[in-house]
Amino acid sequence: MAQSGMTKARPRPLSPHLGIYRWGPHMMVSILNRMMGVGLATLGMALFTMGLMALALGPDAWAHFIGVMRAPVFLWLGRMLGMGLTFALFLHMLAGIRHFVMDIGAGFELKSNRTSAILTLLGAAALTLIVWAIILLGRR
Amino acid sequence: MGTGTELGRVRGLGSAKAGAHHWWLQRLTALGNLLLTLWLVISLLILPSFDYDVVHAWVASPINTVLLALLIINVCWHFRLGLQVVIEDYVHGASRLLVLGLLHIWTFGTGGFALYALLKIAFTGSAH
After folding, report:
1. What b-and-e string marks burial along B87-110, b requiring 16 or more CB atoms within 10 Å of the CB?
2. What is the ipTM of this complex?
Protein backbone atom coordinates (compact mmCIF):
# COMPACT_ATOMS: atom_id res chain seq x y z
CA MET A 1 0.00 0.00 0.00
CA ALA A 2 1.33 3.41 -0.90
CA GLN A 3 1.67 5.37 2.31
CA SER A 4 3.53 8.34 0.90
CA GLY A 5 1.57 11.59 0.93
CA MET A 6 3.02 12.56 -2.42
CA THR A 7 1.37 9.86 -4.54
CA LYS A 8 -2.36 9.48 -4.50
CA ALA A 9 -3.58 5.86 -4.30
CA ARG A 10 -5.40 4.79 -7.42
CA PRO A 11 -7.15 1.45 -8.04
CA ARG A 12 -4.70 -1.23 -9.08
CA PRO A 13 -5.44 -3.42 -12.10
CA LEU A 14 -6.98 -6.75 -11.08
CA SER A 15 -6.17 -10.07 -12.69
CA PRO A 16 -9.17 -11.89 -14.16
CA HIS A 17 -10.83 -14.20 -11.64
CA LEU A 18 -13.62 -16.78 -11.41
CA GLY A 19 -16.41 -14.45 -12.56
CA ILE A 20 -14.69 -13.82 -15.88
CA TYR A 21 -14.16 -17.35 -17.19
CA ARG A 22 -16.65 -19.71 -18.80
CA TRP A 23 -17.44 -22.59 -16.43
CA GLY A 24 -15.83 -25.92 -17.37
CA PRO A 25 -15.16 -29.42 -15.99
CA HIS A 26 -11.64 -28.46 -14.84
CA MET A 27 -13.08 -25.73 -12.59
CA MET A 28 -15.73 -28.15 -11.36
CA VAL A 29 -13.10 -30.76 -10.39
CA SER A 30 -10.89 -28.12 -8.78
CA ILE A 31 -13.58 -26.76 -6.46
CA LEU A 32 -15.12 -30.20 -5.83
CA ASN A 33 -11.68 -31.52 -4.86
CA ARG A 34 -11.46 -28.81 -2.22
CA MET A 35 -15.01 -29.32 -0.95
CA MET A 36 -14.62 -33.10 -0.81
CA GLY A 37 -11.35 -32.68 1.09
CA VAL A 38 -13.08 -30.49 3.66
CA GLY A 39 -15.98 -32.96 3.87
CA LEU A 40 -13.66 -35.93 4.39
CA ALA A 41 -11.65 -34.10 7.06
CA THR A 42 -14.78 -33.12 9.03
CA LEU A 43 -17.68 -35.55 8.46
CA GLY A 44 -15.47 -38.40 7.26
CA MET A 45 -12.99 -38.20 10.11
CA ALA A 46 -15.84 -37.84 12.65
CA LEU A 47 -17.62 -40.94 11.32
CA PHE A 48 -14.38 -42.96 11.09
CA THR A 49 -13.46 -42.06 14.69
CA MET A 50 -16.98 -42.85 15.95
CA GLY A 51 -16.93 -46.23 14.22
CA LEU A 52 -13.55 -47.14 15.68
CA MET A 53 -14.69 -45.95 19.12
CA ALA A 54 -17.86 -48.05 18.87
CA LEU A 55 -15.75 -51.09 17.97
CA ALA A 56 -13.47 -50.41 20.95
CA LEU A 57 -16.41 -50.05 23.36
CA GLY A 58 -17.77 -53.53 22.60
CA PRO A 59 -20.43 -55.53 20.72
CA ASP A 60 -23.41 -53.44 21.90
CA ALA A 61 -21.88 -50.10 20.89
CA TRP A 62 -20.81 -51.57 17.53
CA ALA A 63 -24.28 -53.01 16.87
CA HIS A 64 -25.75 -49.62 17.72
CA PHE A 65 -23.36 -47.82 15.36
CA ILE A 66 -24.04 -50.22 12.48
CA GLY A 67 -27.76 -50.09 13.25
CA VAL A 68 -27.82 -46.31 13.02
CA MET A 69 -25.90 -46.39 9.73
CA ARG A 70 -28.38 -48.92 8.29
CA ALA A 71 -31.55 -47.36 9.71
CA PRO A 72 -34.20 -46.48 7.09
CA VAL A 73 -34.76 -43.01 8.54
CA PHE A 74 -34.63 -39.63 6.76
CA LEU A 75 -34.28 -41.22 3.29
CA TRP A 76 -31.67 -43.72 4.57
CA LEU A 77 -29.56 -40.94 6.07
CA GLY A 78 -26.75 -43.24 7.25
CA ARG A 79 -26.33 -44.90 3.87
CA MET A 80 -26.65 -41.58 2.03
CA LEU A 81 -23.86 -40.25 4.25
CA GLY A 82 -21.78 -43.34 3.52
CA MET A 83 -22.33 -43.01 -0.23
CA GLY A 84 -21.56 -39.29 -0.15
CA LEU A 85 -18.33 -39.91 1.73
CA THR A 86 -17.39 -42.75 -0.62
CA PHE A 87 -17.85 -40.41 -3.59
CA ALA A 88 -15.88 -37.73 -1.77
CA LEU A 89 -13.03 -40.18 -1.11
CA PHE A 90 -12.80 -41.34 -4.73
CA LEU A 91 -13.15 -37.85 -6.18
CA HIS A 92 -10.40 -36.56 -3.90
CA MET A 93 -8.27 -39.61 -4.71
CA LEU A 94 -8.64 -39.34 -8.52
CA ALA A 95 -8.27 -35.55 -8.50
CA GLY A 96 -5.13 -36.04 -6.39
CA ILE A 97 -3.70 -38.47 -8.95
CA ARG A 98 -4.57 -35.91 -11.66
CA HIS A 99 -2.65 -33.32 -9.63
CA PHE A 100 0.39 -35.65 -9.43
CA VAL A 101 0.42 -35.70 -13.25
CA MET A 102 0.04 -31.92 -13.45
CA ASP A 103 2.78 -31.50 -10.84
CA ILE A 104 5.32 -33.01 -13.23
CA GLY A 105 4.16 -30.53 -15.86
CA ALA A 106 2.00 -32.83 -17.95
CA GLY A 107 -1.66 -32.68 -18.89
CA PHE A 108 -2.06 -28.93 -19.23
CA GLU A 109 -3.07 -28.99 -22.91
CA LEU A 110 -6.67 -27.76 -23.13
CA LYS A 111 -8.06 -30.98 -24.52
CA SER A 112 -6.24 -33.48 -22.27
CA ASN A 113 -6.87 -31.29 -19.22
CA ARG A 114 -10.58 -31.23 -19.98
CA THR A 115 -10.63 -34.98 -20.64
CA SER A 116 -8.83 -35.82 -17.38
CA ALA A 117 -11.26 -33.59 -15.47
CA ILE A 118 -14.28 -35.39 -16.97
CA LEU A 119 -12.66 -38.80 -16.32
CA THR A 120 -12.10 -37.80 -12.69
CA LEU A 121 -15.81 -37.07 -12.25
CA LEU A 122 -16.99 -40.19 -14.07
CA GLY A 123 -14.39 -42.40 -12.36
CA ALA A 124 -15.40 -41.24 -8.89
CA ALA A 125 -19.07 -41.92 -9.69
CA ALA A 126 -18.27 -45.35 -11.15
CA LEU A 127 -16.09 -46.44 -8.20
CA THR A 128 -18.77 -45.26 -5.75
CA LEU A 129 -21.37 -47.35 -7.59
CA ILE A 130 -19.11 -50.42 -7.55
CA VAL A 131 -18.35 -50.15 -3.82
CA TRP A 132 -21.99 -49.68 -2.86
CA ALA A 133 -23.17 -52.43 -5.19
CA ILE A 134 -20.81 -54.78 -3.33
CA ILE A 135 -22.04 -53.52 0.07
CA LEU A 136 -25.77 -53.60 -0.71
CA LEU A 137 -25.83 -56.79 -2.81
CA GLY A 138 -23.75 -58.49 -0.09
CA ARG A 139 -26.54 -57.41 2.34
CA ARG A 140 -24.15 -55.49 4.57
CA MET B 1 7.18 0.82 9.04
CA GLY B 2 6.69 3.99 7.10
CA THR B 3 10.25 5.30 7.29
CA GLY B 4 13.14 4.83 4.92
CA THR B 5 13.19 4.35 1.20
CA GLU B 6 10.91 1.87 -0.56
CA LEU B 7 13.88 -0.37 -1.27
CA GLY B 8 14.93 -0.27 2.39
CA ARG B 9 11.46 -1.25 3.55
CA VAL B 10 11.35 -4.47 1.52
CA ARG B 11 14.93 -5.61 2.13
CA GLY B 12 15.02 -8.74 4.22
CA LEU B 13 11.35 -9.50 3.51
CA GLY B 14 12.05 -11.92 0.71
CA SER B 15 11.78 -15.67 0.42
CA ALA B 16 12.63 -17.76 3.48
CA LYS B 17 13.70 -20.53 1.06
CA ALA B 18 11.01 -22.78 2.54
CA GLY B 19 8.18 -22.05 0.12
CA ALA B 20 7.79 -25.58 -1.20
CA HIS B 21 8.02 -27.41 2.14
CA HIS B 22 4.28 -27.29 2.95
CA TRP B 23 3.36 -28.22 -0.62
CA TRP B 24 5.86 -31.10 -0.69
CA LEU B 25 4.60 -32.60 2.59
CA GLN B 26 1.07 -32.39 1.19
CA ARG B 27 2.17 -34.50 -1.83
CA LEU B 28 4.05 -37.05 0.31
CA THR B 29 1.05 -37.53 2.63
CA ALA B 30 -1.21 -37.68 -0.45
CA LEU B 31 0.82 -40.63 -1.73
CA GLY B 32 0.56 -42.34 1.66
CA ASN B 33 -3.19 -41.71 1.75
CA LEU B 34 -3.63 -43.10 -1.75
CA LEU B 35 -2.02 -46.42 -0.79
CA LEU B 36 -3.51 -46.70 2.70
CA THR B 37 -7.11 -45.74 1.89
CA LEU B 38 -7.17 -48.05 -1.14
CA TRP B 39 -5.96 -50.84 1.17
CA LEU B 40 -8.65 -49.95 3.73
CA VAL B 41 -11.53 -49.84 1.23
CA ILE B 42 -10.57 -53.13 -0.41
CA SER B 43 -9.95 -54.84 2.93
CA LEU B 44 -13.35 -53.79 4.31
CA LEU B 45 -15.14 -54.89 1.13
CA ILE B 46 -13.68 -58.40 1.21
CA LEU B 47 -14.62 -58.98 4.86
CA PRO B 48 -17.33 -61.68 5.01
CA SER B 49 -19.58 -59.36 7.07
CA PHE B 50 -19.55 -56.23 9.22
CA ASP B 51 -20.41 -58.19 12.38
CA TYR B 52 -18.57 -57.26 15.57
CA ASP B 53 -16.39 -60.38 15.77
CA VAL B 54 -15.32 -60.14 12.14
CA VAL B 55 -14.42 -56.44 12.16
CA HIS B 56 -12.82 -56.58 15.63
CA ALA B 57 -10.60 -59.51 14.68
CA TRP B 58 -9.60 -57.78 11.45
CA VAL B 59 -8.61 -54.53 13.21
CA ALA B 60 -6.79 -56.41 16.00
CA SER B 61 -4.52 -58.41 13.72
CA PRO B 62 -0.99 -56.93 14.00
CA ILE B 63 -0.35 -55.80 10.42
CA ASN B 64 -3.80 -54.23 10.16
CA THR B 65 -3.34 -52.38 13.47
CA VAL B 66 -0.03 -50.91 12.33
CA LEU B 67 -1.38 -49.90 8.91
CA LEU B 68 -4.48 -48.35 10.51
CA ALA B 69 -2.27 -46.36 12.89
CA LEU B 70 -0.21 -45.12 9.93
CA LEU B 71 -3.42 -44.30 8.07
CA ILE B 72 -4.78 -42.24 11.00
CA ILE B 73 -1.51 -40.30 11.37
CA ASN B 74 -1.12 -39.77 7.62
CA VAL B 75 -4.74 -38.71 7.07
CA CYS B 76 -4.61 -36.25 9.99
CA TRP B 77 -1.33 -34.80 8.75
CA HIS B 78 -2.70 -34.43 5.22
CA PHE B 79 -5.96 -32.72 6.20
CA ARG B 80 -4.15 -30.50 8.72
CA LEU B 81 -2.05 -29.16 5.81
CA GLY B 82 -4.90 -29.08 3.30
CA LEU B 83 -7.52 -27.36 5.44
CA GLN B 84 -4.91 -24.82 6.52
CA VAL B 85 -4.59 -23.73 2.89
CA VAL B 86 -8.38 -23.59 2.47
CA ILE B 87 -8.72 -21.49 5.63
CA GLU B 88 -5.93 -19.15 4.55
CA ASP B 89 -7.72 -18.62 1.24
CA TYR B 90 -11.20 -17.87 2.58
CA VAL B 91 -10.95 -16.68 6.20
CA HIS B 92 -9.44 -13.26 6.83
CA GLY B 93 -8.57 -11.10 9.81
CA ALA B 94 -8.61 -12.18 13.43
CA SER B 95 -11.09 -15.02 12.82
CA ARG B 96 -8.44 -16.79 10.73
CA LEU B 97 -6.37 -17.39 13.87
CA LEU B 98 -9.41 -18.78 15.65
CA VAL B 99 -10.31 -21.16 12.80
CA LEU B 100 -6.71 -22.32 12.42
CA GLY B 101 -6.68 -23.03 16.15
CA LEU B 102 -9.90 -25.04 15.84
CA LEU B 103 -8.39 -27.00 12.95
CA HIS B 104 -5.39 -27.84 15.12
CA ILE B 105 -7.63 -29.03 17.97
CA TRP B 106 -9.81 -31.04 15.54
CA THR B 107 -6.75 -32.73 14.02
CA PHE B 108 -5.18 -33.82 17.28
CA GLY B 109 -8.54 -34.47 18.96
CA THR B 110 -9.93 -36.84 16.35
CA GLY B 111 -6.51 -38.37 15.72
CA GLY B 112 -6.05 -38.96 19.45
CA PHE B 113 -9.47 -40.58 19.92
CA ALA B 114 -9.02 -42.75 16.82
CA LEU B 115 -5.56 -43.93 17.93
CA TYR B 116 -6.83 -44.64 21.47
CA ALA B 117 -9.72 -46.73 20.09
CA LEU B 118 -7.36 -48.57 17.77
CA LEU B 119 -4.90 -49.44 20.54
CA LYS B 120 -7.71 -50.54 22.86
CA ILE B 121 -9.00 -52.91 20.17
CA ALA B 122 -5.49 -54.21 19.50
CA PHE B 123 -4.32 -54.74 23.07
CA THR B 124 -7.35 -55.56 25.22
CA GLY B 125 -8.93 -58.33 23.16
CA SER B 126 -12.53 -58.88 22.23
CA ALA B 127 -15.12 -57.72 24.79
CA HIS B 128 -16.88 -61.10 24.78
Report:
1. beeeeeeeeeeebeeebeebbeeb
2. 0.87
Is the pLDDT assigned to residue B27 strictly greater than 80? yes
Number of residues that make up chain B: 128
CATH 3.40.50.2300 fits B15-123, yes or no: no
Decide if A41 and B82 are in contact by the 8 Å CB cutoff: yes
**Bigger pLDDT: A11 or B39?**
B39
CA distance B22 to B102: 19
Q: What is the tens place of the pLDDT at every residue in A101-114?
A: 999 999 999 999 99
DSSP assignment of A85-120 equals HHHHHHHHHHHHHHHHHHHTT-S-SHHHHHHHHHHH
Distance between CA atoms of B11 and A15, rounded to whole angstroms?
26
d(CA B28, CA B75): 11
pLDDT for A138 equals: 85
Give B82's contacts in chain A (Cβ within 8 Å).
37, 41
Question: pTM of this prediction?
Answer: 0.87
Question: Which residue of chain A comes nearest to B56, CA vs CA?
Answer: A55
Rounded to 5°, the CA angle A93-A97-A99 comes to 115
Contacts of B97 (CB under 8 A, 6+ apart): none
The domains of chain B are located at 15-123
Q: Which residue has the higher pLDDT, B126 or A28?
A: A28
Crossing angle for the helix pair A110-137 and A25-39, to the nearest 10 degrees: 40
